[in-house]
Amino acid sequence: MKQQVETDSPLMRKLIREYIPQANEHCQNQFVRYYELLIDCNNRMNLTAITDPFGIVQRHFADSLLGEKLIPNGSKCIDVGTWAGFPGIPLLIMRPDIELTLLDSLNKRVAFLNDVAVELSLPCSAVHARAEDAAQSVELREKFDIALTRAVANIGTIAEWTLPFLKNGGYSLMYKGPGAAEELKAAESALKCLNGTAELREIDTEWGARSLVLIKKHGTMPKKYPRRPGVAAKNPL
């Protein structure tokens, strides 16, 4: 991971200043290095189909920050199914006050995320596990204030995967596209089973219509949730 790759750093910095104007020079440096590591590793494994600086800054970095102001100061967060680190790593770059755990089911991606954390001096850890298994572990169950997901599954399935990680009163923060209202309607029975209530925030961006779905957890999650791996996706509540 130490090897430098050919990237257009001046262009990256220009785009970061344009789309993430709140980023100071240190944060800009972290975003540029993150991009370099992402592109380098993407040549060996599938992390993202978006590889140009413009697309990365808009649709990965800036998009990940759409929920930044919804996360209370000092929140303990888990990014479930993080893949290449979105939205968790951009959020941590801009919000060093939060605590972050990155969760992914592929060990190669976990290794990449741990390398990124070292290279960017980010105080986060990456865990190799499926959400259904990790949410049943004593170390992770009901330990977080915020569960983050982006482009993972439908709302009902994500709710079953993420609410068990949360403390009572915690939020599952889902990054979704323009069809979130319809997904929420389809997830009503699941949210009722899981004692979750929903809030939808729709955002227009230069890269398209985006939605943030907040599912608040009420009470303690029944031990049977989440169900064993694969069940929630195949047979939503």
What does this structure look like?
It is a single chain. The chain is of the alpha/beta class. The chain has 10 helices and 7 strands. It has helices at 9-19, 25-42, 53-64, 88-94, 107-119, 131-134, 155-162, 180-186, 188-193, 231-234, and strands spanning 76-80, 99-104, 124-128, 144-150, 166-176, 196-205, 208-217. The protein has a 7-stranded mixed β-sheet with strand order 3-2-1-4-5-7-6, with helices on both faces. Helix 4 (88-94) links the parallel strand 1 and strand 2. Helix 1 (9-19) packs across helix 2 and helix 1 (9-19) runs parallel beside helix 3 (53-64). The N and C termini lie far apart (42 Å).
Describe the structure concisely.
By secondary structure, this protein is of the alpha/beta class.
